[in-house]
């Protein structure tokens, strides 16, 4: 029998966004590896799913990969989830999958890695922003220090829209840099997608800095930033 590693997307806020297939897979696998076991416990409890969660969180991808391989070798079916959204997109996953795939090649056809797609803040932001983004560059999280200024220059020169994730601690700093390097570009901030305070705010960096100065309580939550193309 082929046993499987499922890469399962989970909601980015609104729990109704989980897919029927994700629920079925999370119920039927033998073990779930999660980015944070406490977050996973809450998700599973909400849906009444009793599948065991591995103690080893996936933030240590090396160790998680080793343990996942041991479990797969023992014939178990496994699901990998992150705290929210799609594993591997600015979340643990890629290294684990590479390791499992390398190992799987040796034992084929006994292991299969399957995508169970669903929510991602990236896709949700692009879909709701209403910008023309048939082509875009996704940068994940911007570096905090090294290479940051170069990246802002690249964003300024980009012929494509640029999308990245940002935290509430850095959003104002990032807008200051965009004001410096891309003062004319249109920026769209998608905040708290699928949650109660979801909103999409657009304007130049100066407009957005003024907005957050006026509503400091909105410098909170989760953000996706989209910078329009040149
Ligand atoms: N793997 C996830 C995905 O597929 O969306 C992304 C994980 S990354 C660690 C978390 C970042 O995604 C947050 O800091 C934020 O920038 C963005 N994000 C996640 N949920 C979001 C939401 N509901 N609204 C806006 N941005 C969100």
UniProtKB/TrEMBL annotation:
Gene Ontology CC: cytoplasm
Subcellular location, record wording: Cytoplasm
Documented EC number(s): 2.1.1.198
Main location: cytoplasm
Signal peptide start and end residues: none
Pfam families referenced in this protein's UniProt entry, alphabetically: TP_methylase
Keyword Cytoplasm carried by entry: yes
Domain of life according to the entry: Bacteria
Record GO terms (molecular function): rRNA (cytosine-2'-O-)-methyltransferase activity
Keyword Cell membrane assigned: no
Catalytic reaction annotation: cytidine(1402) in 16S rRNA + S-adenosyl-L-methionine = 2'-O-methylcytidine(1402) in 16S rRNA + S-adenosyl-L-homocysteine + H(+)
UniProt entry keywords in alphabetical sequence: Cytoplasm, Methyltransferase, rRNA processing, S-adenosyl-L-methionine, Transferase
Annotated ranges, domain Tetrapyrrole methylase: 4-205
InterPro entries: 4pyrrol_Mease, 4pyrrol_Methylase_sf, 4pyrrole_Mease_sub1, 4pyrrole_Mease_sub2, rRNA_ssu_MeTfrase_I, SAM_MeTrfase_RsmI_CS
Record-stated family: Belongs to the methyltransferase superfamily. RsmI family.
Function: Catalyzes the 2'-O-methylation of the ribose of cytidine 1402 (C1402) in 16S rRNA.
Protein known as: Ribosomal RNA small subunit methyltransferase I
């Amino acid at each position: 029998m082929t046993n499987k590693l499922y890469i399962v997307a989970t909601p980015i806020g609104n729990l109704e966004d989980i897919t029927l297939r994700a629920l079925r897979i999370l119920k039927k696998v033998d073990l779930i590896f999660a980015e944070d076991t406490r977050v996973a416990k809450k998700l599973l409890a909400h849906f009444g799913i009793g599948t065991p969660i591995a103690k080893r969180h996936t933030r240590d991808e090396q160790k998680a990969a080793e343990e996942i391989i041991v479990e797969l070798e023992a014939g178990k079916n496994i699901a990998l989830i992150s705290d929210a959204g799609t594993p591997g997109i600015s979340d643990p996953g890629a290294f684990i999958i590479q390791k499992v795939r390398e190992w799987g090649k040796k034992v084929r056809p006994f292991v299969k890695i399957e995508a169970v797609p669903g929510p991602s803040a990236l896709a949700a932001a692009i879909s709701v922003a209403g910008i023309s983004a048939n082509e875009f560059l996704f940068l994940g999280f911007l570096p905090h220090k090294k290479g940051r200024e170069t990246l802002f220059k690249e964003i300024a020169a980009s012929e494509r829209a640029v999308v990245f994730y940002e935290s509430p601690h850095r959003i104002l700093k990032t807008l200051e840099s965009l004001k410096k390097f891309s003062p004319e570009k249109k920026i769209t901030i998608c905040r708290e997608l699928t949650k109660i305070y979801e909103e999409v705010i657009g304007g130049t960096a100066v407009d957005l800095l003024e907005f957050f100065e006026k509503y400091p309580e909105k410098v909170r939550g989760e953000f996706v930033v989209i910078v329009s193309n040149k």
